[in-house]
Amino acid sequence: GPTTNICMSCGALSAACCGGNRCQPGGLCVADMCNxxxxxxxxxxxxxxxxxECGASLVCNSxxxxxxxxxxxxxxxxxxxxxxxxxxxxxxxxxxxGAARTCMNCGALGGACCAGDVCQGSxxxxxxxxxxxxxxxxxxxxxxxxxxxxxNMCEACGxxxxxCCPGAGNGTCGANxxxxxxxxxxxxxxTACGGMAQACCGTGxxxxxxxxxxxxxxxxxTMADARCGTL
Length: 231
Known about the structure:
Layout: E1 27-30, E2 33-36, E3 58-60, E4 70-72, E5 91-93, E6 102-104, E7 123-132, E8 147-156, E9 177-180, E10 189-192, E11 214-216, E12 227-229
Antiparallel strand pairs: 1-2, 3-4, 5-6, 7-8, 9-10, 11-12
């Protein structure tokens, strides 16, 4: 028959492990004894029983319960915490190349994007390239060739006439907005949907309209051509 788990006086810190190499929360079974885990510099706790691998503002530097060490995270120049989060005012930069993601003073709304085109909160990294005038020529000389300047800045996203927030596909927008791909190199933008004569909200065959309006597909058209209206 099925195995029954029984509550017993075992698994406390510095005491013998319970059967199955189990310890009470905050303990890790090593050589049949329960040692402290989950604190800074301590081994990561097993994830059994719903407990976290590490305590607050700590992250396990390796995968799997009991493997790796709990390391401080979330502050400036520290690795990002679980879910790629940092302390307020910091962005989780993603330098790539296998390097650890690190919390840095970047990615604020209206500021420069973090490495990896990362922004804080509800903002998105937008790349803009502007042409610059050529340099002035010297006496009897030709002017310099025109150049261009590329900037990566974090802008508000997800609302009316705003860029789409990072997400699946082209990105995501708030309620009653579709994320519509931009032309050429232009960013995807949030456009109103669901109202009378507006595009239906959503993608694929599960598109919706507001109130009593229906999503009407034109004869010979596709769902991408559907508009909200009444029969």
